[in-house]
Predict the 3D structure of the following.
Amino acid sequence: MKPFYLNGRTGMTVALDGPALRVLAPGRAATLYPLQRISRVITSGPAAWSTEALLACAERGITVTFLARDGAIQAYLFGEASRREGLFCRLRDLLDRPDWQARYSDWYRAMESRARRALGKRLGLAGEVPPRGRLEAALAEWKQRHVSPAVGRFIDRRLNGLLSALAAELLAEAGLTAERARGLGERLRLTEDLSRLLTWDLQLPVIELLDRQLSPPGAPLRLDDAELVRLFEGQSQRLRRLGRTVLNRLHGWLVEL
């Protein structure tokens, strides 16, 4: 981001045009300045600002300083600077980019690769990161040897619900409340994405639980909702730390972007 210096002139207007400021001066074509690239605005001379443009700067934490021709300060407009550095505003800036989907997909794939590598190490797999499809197939095959398909689906559904609740809590803790999440529209499904990333870390505890339940061999499987909740709660602090780490990495990546 860079400061935006505006040398005003008679008849110049500054309006909001989607995610950008549109500056129009007599005898010149309109110029767009994306808000996501602006750190602050310094404007001098006559220029008519629309209310919408000023509010957009304030909402994004962009300070606007109004100077007289002689350089004297006439007024300031302060936004919520802390929010500009927050996850919500960074995500909103991301969605203003035409290439946001490709960029975000690249980031998510990198995070998922990290998660698969970590699971591979915990499972004692050496070498390259296990491909997602092969790892999912291996885990599914392992479960089928221990439990019926119906029990396997029950385990996956129940743990997915518990993980989704934790992901929603972590996002709210990071400032992404339900209202703000709705403001991002249907394009980003962060609760689902965070849940899927955390799911990889929960696979080994599930395997260990089923091993305990089936020892000695041939013993009846006693697995109910309460057992899965106890499993999840036993891992909740670790999952919470991992979730916060993922969100911190997301924020850091957005800042660099």
The first strand starts at residue 2 and ends at 7. The mean pLDDT is 83. The beta strands are 2-7, 13-17, 20-24, 31-34, 38-44, 48-49, 63-67, 73-77.
